[in-house]
């Protein structure tokens, strides 16, 4: 009798940094996820983006999306707890909303799960409104459908009302 194979579950984590070594912070975030036992399957490119919905002048962000995938992901609540711990260990202190940050990790999607609790809303409630999340997500899963809007991420990005700057990041060579 053939062994049953558990279906592969995917979750997507938005990552952003605009303080200190932004690229290094993203790398440390990926390392933190791996160290926390999270199965990082794929990473998007890194995008340089302008801050959105902030009340004070801030430096540009570097953003990317990590796909977590495997037969056994922690529950959404456990996953969120691990992400918050990684942020904390890397210097993030939650105080002022929309403040600049060393590292921001947002659980965007957990399969097609729809959930709304005091601590977690899935899919992320502003996912479809933000180019800085949509561009890297559309890179990883262009044809995947938003579980509420039932549109592909490629199409949501193409019709987004958010016109903030989102461009592929090109690291500078400062050695010259």
Structural features:
alpha+beta; 176 residues; six-stranded antiparallel β-sheet; Alpha-Beta Plaits; globular
What does this structure look like?
This protein has 176 residues and is α+β, with helices and mostly antiparallel strands. The chain has a single domain (9-168), classed as 7,8-Dihydro-6-hydroxymethylpterin-pyrophosphokinase HPPK (Alpha-Beta Plaits). It is 25% helix and 23% strand. β6 and β7 form a beta hairpin. The protein is globular.
Task: Explain briefly what this protein structure is.
By secondary structure, the chain is of the alpha+beta class.
Helix-residue proportion: 25-40%
CATH topology: Alpha-Beta Plaits
Number of domains: 1
CATH architecture: 2-Layer Sandwich
Q: What would you give as the CATH superfamily?
A: 7,8-Dihydro-6-hydroxymethylpterin-pyrophosphokinase HPPK
In total, the number of strands is 8
In whole angstroms, the N-to-C terminal distance is 63 Å
- The amount of beta strand, in percent, is 15-25%
Secondary-structure-based class equals: alpha+beta
Poorly predicted runs of 5 or more residues: none
If helices are DSSP runs of H or I spanning 4 or more residues, what is the number of helices?
4
Overall 3D form: globular
Largest sheet features? 6 strands, antiparallel
> Radius of gyration from the CA trace?
16 Å
CATH class: Alpha Beta
Element order: H for helix, E for strand: EHEEEHEEEHHE
Average pLDDT = 90
């Amino acid at each position: 009798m053939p062994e049953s194979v558990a279906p592969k579950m995917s979750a997507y984590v938005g990552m952003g940094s605009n303080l200190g070594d932004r690229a290094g912070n993203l790398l440390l975030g990926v390392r933190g996820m791996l160290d926390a036992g999270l199965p990082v399957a794929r990473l998007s490119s890194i995008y340089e983006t302008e801050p959105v919905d902030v009340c004070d002048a801030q430096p540009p962000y570097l953003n990317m999306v990590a796909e977590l995938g495997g037969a056994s992901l922690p529950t959404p609540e456990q996953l969120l707890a691990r992400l918050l711990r990684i942020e904390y260990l890397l210097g993030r202190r939650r105080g002022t909303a929309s403040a600049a940050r060393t590292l921001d990790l947002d659980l965007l999607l957990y399969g097609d799960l729809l959930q709304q609790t005091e601590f977690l809303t899935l899919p992320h409630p502003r996912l479809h409104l933000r180019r800085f999340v949509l561009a890297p997500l559309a890179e990883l899963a262009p044809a995947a459908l938003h579980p509420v809007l039932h549109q592909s991420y490629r199409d949501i990005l193409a019709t987004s009302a958010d016109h903030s700057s989102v461009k592929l990041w090109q690291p500078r060579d400062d050695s010259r």
